[in-house]
Amino acid sequence: MVIGKKIYFVSDLHLGALALKNNKERELLFVDWLQSIRKEASMIFIMGDYFDFWFEYKKTVPKGFVRSLGVLANICDSGTPVHFFTGNHDIWAFDYLSEEVGMVVHKESTTMKLLGKKFFLSHGDDLGKKDFGYQLIKNFFHNSLAQWAFAKIHPDLSFRMAHYWSKKSRLSYKNGDALVKNIKTEEQYLFAKNVEAKEHFDYFVFGHCHQIINEPLNDNSRLIVLGDWIRKFSYGVFDGNEFRIETIEDNKLKEYRITI
Prior knowledge:
By secondary structure, the chain is α/β, with parallel strands linked by helices. It has a single domain (6-255), classed as Metallo-dependent phosphatases (Purple Acid Phosphatase, chain A, domain 2). The chain is built from eight helices and eleven strands. It has helices spanning 23-37, 66-77, 96-101, 132-142, 144-151, 155-167, 187-198, 250-255, and strands at residues 6-10, 41-46, 82-85, 104-106, 110-114, 117-121, 203-206, 212-218, 221-226, 234-238, 243-247. The radius of gyration is 18 Å and the shape is globular. The two termini are 34 Å apart.
């Protein structure tokens, strides 16, 4: 294998989540992971919900995350592309991450060829979703007037409101660690099967549901769901021949005092 020809994928870190008490340790672990892969990574993909909440005011960006953003900026400056997909928790990313950090920001699902294979890439929060209420909320968040109005709220209040809402979400983990009982009934699986029937992709790579899934759609196509950086500490690695999902070793989790 040629060094520098691996592509890495990670999703759902939810840095800054009020529902989680180990945000600093998880960010330090992420920084350590970035430093460990940077020499052999030809590209890095962050597949959404990197932040638990993110909103860029015209002259203000959220407090925190400087350790990981600094490393990501350094990786971008060194010539390694880092692709950032907005998730449902960090949907309001405008130009800071691209202009200051140097990442390529994707706000929609994207297809591309990587090491000779076709990929369909998305955070995956609304793929195949038939929930009208969810679609209504997402359209509201994308509305430029709503974004303008939110920007008029003082950051101390707006972020408090956003984190309170997020704390009520799956990050409470009352049901957040439930296993997928039947993958073939899941929305992401059904969406990928439908797309694959019309156009072939070797890999569909999603985040969002906090589960680890590496499932064949047919003999030549696979569905990948990357897990998370909350309990599973998982990531994807593609070397041109195989897509693997790996996890952080237990000794690293203990080193950063993370209770799972």
